[in-house]
Structures are given as C-alpha cells and as structure tokens.
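Re: coenzyme A structure - here you go.
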Amino acid sequence: MQPIFETNRLLVCPRTLMDTGACMAMDGDPEVTRFVTGPWSNPVAHRAFIEQRTRGPYPPGQGYWTVRHRGDAGSFIGWVLLIPADTIGPEVEIGWRLRRSAWGRGFATEAARLLIVHAFTTLNLPEVIAEIDPDNAGSLRVAEKLGLRPSGVVQRHGRPALRCTLMAREYETMQHCAHGAGAARETG
Ligand SMILES: CC(C)(COP(=O)(O)OP(=O)(O)OC[C@H]1O[C@@H](n2cnc3c(N)ncnc32)[C@H](O)[C@@H]1OP(=O)(O)O)[C@@H](O)C(=O)NCCC(=O)NCCS
C-alpha cells in the first residue's frame, strides 16, 4: 500500500484515475514533455498510458503519487513516482514531473525526498535510480540535490539517458553526516 505524505507545503498522495485529466493537461505543455518520450500527441493512447501507469500493478509501497498544495486537496502540482524501472525493473526508479507553473520553487525535490526516505527506511530498497536526458539540467539538479550520482549512460526509447544512482549505504552516510552536522551546530 502507498502511504500519504505531507510537508509544510505539500500533500503527496497515491495517484488515482481521477488525476488522469490533470496529468494529460500537464503533458500537453511541450516544455513539460520536452525530454520525455511518450504518446503525448495521441489523446487515446495518452489516456490509456496514464491509466495503465496509475493502475500498475507495482510491488507493495511503490507507484505514482500526485503532488498537491497542502490545504488545497483539489490542486494539482504534478506527480512523483517510485516504480520498477520502465515498469520492468529489477532496479527501482524515482521520477518527477510538475506543471510548468510550479517549477522553480523546490517542489520536485521536496516531494521526491519523501520517496527517497520511504524507499530506504520503509521499503529497505538496496538502491534507487533515475534515468535523465543529459540535456535536462533541471531534472539532473533535482537528482543531485537528492544525493543521486551519475553511474552510466543507457539507451532509453532510442535516446541516451544518464543513469543516476543512490545506494542505501550512501543514503545512510548522508543521514549520518546531516545529523552529525546538526549536532555540531547545536554544540558549537
Ligand atoms: C524537472 C522538474 C521536475 C523540476 O521541478 P522543480 O520543482 O522546478 O525542481 P526544484 O525546484 O526542486 O529544483 C530544480 C533545480 O534545478 C535548477 N534548474 C532548473 N532549471 C535549470 C536549468 N535549465 N539549468 C540549470 N539548473 C536548472 C533549479 O535552479 C533548482 O536548483 P537549485 O535549487 O540549486 O536552485 C520540472 O522542471 C519538470 O517537471 N520538468 C518537466 C518534466 C521532466 O523533465 N521530468 C524529469 C524527467 S527525467
């Protein structure tokens, strides 16, 4: 089962078929899908793709989450995902896509960080990956802020993608350092 997450700004809850229209509208912006291959120009195939991706099935605790403004349950900022890579695996992929009007406010990083914590502390995954177009600087920066590091180049749908990886032991080290730095600030 997929949990619901909250931050001070965001409500991040399992995506449902009710979100299909908002997802389609978001994908209708060519800037949003600039670096992502998909059936964006065919409404029938596009709807079927989103519905199939929403339904899964996925392993327990994995799937798509819709990102909303906290306190506005009807809002739609975009989505984040944690699913088997390209739905097949065996790696587990993390991903993000937001409406253009929401870019540049830290929302993608804030929402995806919840999934990183979930991946390593609840699901006990050994690693998470992201596959990102090398020209998609914004997405690469989100991955970097989350601690993912480039680990190779793969071909995805006829395009090169930079694979970025965060391993569980690297996540633990990050947590350790963050808490250590906090403790140092408190005592220093
Ligand atoms: C990628 C995306 C999710 C980022 O969302 P966001 O909420 O703006 O991301 P954040 O604000 O958390 O972080 C973005 C970071 O990238 C930086 N950035 C954004 N565009 C950039 C660019 N063109 N060049 C360099 N850095 C860029 C921002 O400055 C920010 O870094 P900072 O916090 O150090 O300033 C959003 O742009 C999007 O939905 N893009 C279309 C879908 C997509 O490409 N998804 C990823 C597929 S792999």
